[in-house]
Write a structure and sequence with these properties.
Layout lengths: L1 H13 L1 H4 L46 H14 L4 H6 L3 H15 L8 H14 L3 H15 L4 H8 L7 H14 L6 H8 L5 H24 L5 H5 L5 H8 L1
Helix pairs in contact: 1-5, 5-11, 6-7, 6-9, 6-11, 7-8, 9-10, 9-11
This protein binds 2-acetamido-2-deoxy-beta-D-glucopyranose (3 copies).
Organism: Varanus komodoensis (Komodo dragon)
Keywords: Signal
GO molecular function, one term: peroxiredoxin activity
């Protein structure tokens, strides 16, 4: 059992850079060797000890199992900040491991017709229905980064039916939302997907992302999980412009 878990986590590690944020957003951490040890505690946002990120206590780093600390450090070094979902889930180490193993299995899957941007868009659209600010804000940021489209996720957040989506994306979101709303899923749903190049395995991928994040949305809900401030601005301004204005 322990071995299996370790194998799973090692896989997570090997794919670390693809795990949460693409290399293109790693900014100044980009090319550095990742041996830096992060010393601070995980419990607050931006070191502001008076502003909690959620309702449950976050364990001190020293009290957390090593595999969890290692993964958090890796994500933080590679991303430039540690998304609050890692801190919140560390309250339950066994669930932390299960959560990120499942997350990795569906989000970093290398087969099928869903791009990374497609996956993020499914999370955005369904998390709106589930009233989850953390998930909408974090995953719309990731959508902007992966798609290089700074406005589409915002459009989907307000009203996906009026967003500048392709017919393919529309069909994908229609299915994801039918799963999200627990509608009666029939053959017709699968046929509509097929008309846009999504086979049954792709339908599973869309359904599984919708389902997993419905669970994640609910955990964020009762734990009162707050998004990191970094997510709000990520991917809104093209990098060349950003560089030009800061030099
Ligand atoms: C820390 O958070 C508290 C509570 O939200 C806020 O009043 C205070 O201004 C924050 N301090 C800093 C330095 O951001
Ligand atoms: C779901 O749809 C199928 C096919 O149209 C139908 O036979 C079935 O009765 C429906 N089930 C429910 C619970 O509405
Ligand atoms: C339309 C499209 O991209 N179809 C591809 C979906 O994925 C399968 C296998 O993963 C490919 O064989 C299809 O070409």
């Amino acid at each position: 059992m322990k071995r299996l878990l370790l194998a799973g986590l090692l896989q997570l590690h090997r794919r670390g850079s693809a795990f949460l944020l693409p290399l293109s957003v790693l900014g100044s951490f980009g090319g550095r060797p990742q041996t830096r040890t992060l010393k601070h505690a995980y419990s607050t946002e931006g070191g502001n000890v008076t502003k909690p990120i959620g309702r449950y206590p976050i364990p001190n780093k020293n009290d957390l199992p090593y595999d969890i600390v290692e993964l958090m450090d890796e994500v933080e070094v590679k991303s430039g900040f540690l998304p609050n979902v890692f801190k919140a889930m560390s309250h339950r180490p066994a669930e932390f491991r299960a959560f990120f193993a499942y997350y990795n299995a569906i989000m970093n899957k290398e087969t099928g017709n869903l791009s990374k941007a497609d996956r993020e868009l499914i999370i955005v659209a369904t998390s709106v229905v589930n009233d989850c600010p953390y998930c909408v804000i974090a995953h719309s940021a990731l959508h902007r980064i992966y798609s290089k489209k700074p406005t589409l996720a915002d459009q989907v957040i307000v009203n996906w039916k009026k967003a500048d989506l392709s017919d393919r994306e529309r069909a994908m979101l229609e299915f994801a939302l039918a799963v999200c709303r627990a509608e009666n899923i029939t053959e017709e749903h699968f046929q509509k997907l097929e008309a846009h190049g999504f086979d049954r395995e792709d339908a599973w991928d869309i359904g599984a992302i919708s389902a997993f994040f419905a669970m994640s949305n609910r955990i964020a809900h009762f734990t009162d999980l707050h998004p990191n401030s970094e997510f709000y601005t990520m991917g809104r301004i093209p990098r060349e412009k950003e560089k030009a204005s800061s030099s």
